[in-house]
Amino acid sequence: MSLPSSDFPKCRIVVDAMGGDFAPHHEVIGALSAFSENKSFHLILVGDDEKIKAIAKENNLSLDGVELIHSEEIITMNDSPTSALKTKQKSSLVIGAKLVASGGADAFVSTGNTGAVAAAGTLLIGRLAGVERPTIGTYIPNMTGITTVFDVGAFVDSKPQHMLGYAQLANVYVKEMFGIEKPMVGLLSVGEENEKGNKLTKETFELLKSSKLNFFGNIEGRDILTGKVNIVICDGFVGNILLKFGESFLKILKPMLKKTADANFFDKVKIAISRNAIRKSFKVFDPNEYGGIPLLGVKAITIIGHGSSTVYGIKNMVLKAKEMYDKKLIAKLAKEMNKEN
Fold it and tell me: Which domains does the chain have, with CATH numbers?
């Protein structure tokens, strides 16, 4: 049984060990790798404890100082998010989220069903005061650094006031995590002109314009990769399409390069010579580099990883949770949303 927050001096990070496509192997090895690198937090693994122990043993990883909580059920990628929270009370996802909600842990990390993790964050962990809708963000490399995009699918239907909330949450996140004092915020639309867009974007534009945010105005899809703004705001429907398109683009780029190289000897030589540069370019687009995506607007640190996350990716998710804890992100988000609303 985890100790209450007042009795525990370390950050306590819960990892849903059964959530991803390669669970529990990647989750266990990744989380234990993070713990072996940085023991300044308390690690809690929720999952099939016998499988967790076997994986640790097979990979010569120590479980000393690691808390194990057994779970009997798994919420799959095909489960309905809200229904699964009710019907699979013994799942690793529900047990982990409830532990955080009760104050038994400070952060929740999962590579499980994104909708279920978002629902668990919203319904079990709970929203911060002043937050109508939590938001999920992602990272897109640009010419000078990173562009963050909110929302990418926490909710597919949004109202203008929800979009303003996404921007307020994202503003605090980017300021604290990237060290940008006044992040530039752009609204994704079909043109830069103020009057461009649909009813949702036009009304959102007016709210953002009258807010205290450093609002650039409308941006187009082509501006995301240029670094024109630090934060891109869109509704979850558009954002999720953007996210999935980006993932598919990277998947086809490597086979296309190989096809080009195989078709011509001289092209193959050129690509071979440029291999290191190409590898570095691909690396910045790899989601495993960024430690998952944050669910902002809930009462505790919640990080969602891709179902196919690698061991390295999960390690980075755990370390990102620790970084967010060290920077007191939740307290700063709560303060800002209370002030704004």
Answer: 1-131+297-341 (3.40.718.10), 249-279 (no CATH)
